[in-house]
Design a protein that fits this description.
By secondary structure, the chain is mostly beta strands. It is about 0% helix and about 50% strand. It has no helices and eleven strands. The strands form two sheets. Strands 2, 4, 5, 6, 9, 10 and 11 form a seven-stranded mixed sheet that branches. The N and C termini lie far apart (about 40 Å). The mean pLDDT is about 95.
């Protein structure tokens, strides 16, 4: 397992922005595909965005396309989620996930994002 630590969550008004970070100390970070997921109150956890190990490929949920941007800095062992034009429905706990192998993953502890209307 890989320890992942998310940060950057908080309370923001609708239309505002936040940048989430997910950091790890492992040297193999640059070999992992990384993703962000979220879980809203009373809902299942859902996919938000992903980025390949090299950063060359990204993917987004339809609900966040054009508003969220995933990126990574392999020299800092960190993946980011820039969230712009936030909406109340973006309120959730956000988790980062590292894909260690085809079937093995590590998850962070989550960071709360609350968007007020």
């Amino acid at each position: 397992q890989v320890q992942l630590v998310e940060s950057g969550g908080g309370l923001v008004q609708a239309g505002g922005s936040l940048r989430l970070s997910c950091a790890t100390s492992v040297r193999t970070f640059g070999s992992y595909d990384m993703s962000w997921f979220r879980r809203a109150p009373g809902k299942e956890r859902e996919f938000v965005a992903s980025i390949s190990w090299s950063g060359s490929r990204t993917d987004y949920a339809d609900s966040v396309k054009g508003r969220f941007t995933i990126s990574r800095d392999n020299t800092k062992n960190t993946v980011y989620l820039q969230m712009n034009n936030l909406k109340p429905e973006d309120t959730a706990v956000y988790y980062c996930r590292a894909r260690l192998t085809l079937i093995d993953y590590s998850w962070g502890q989550g960071t709360q994002v609350t968007v007020s209307s």
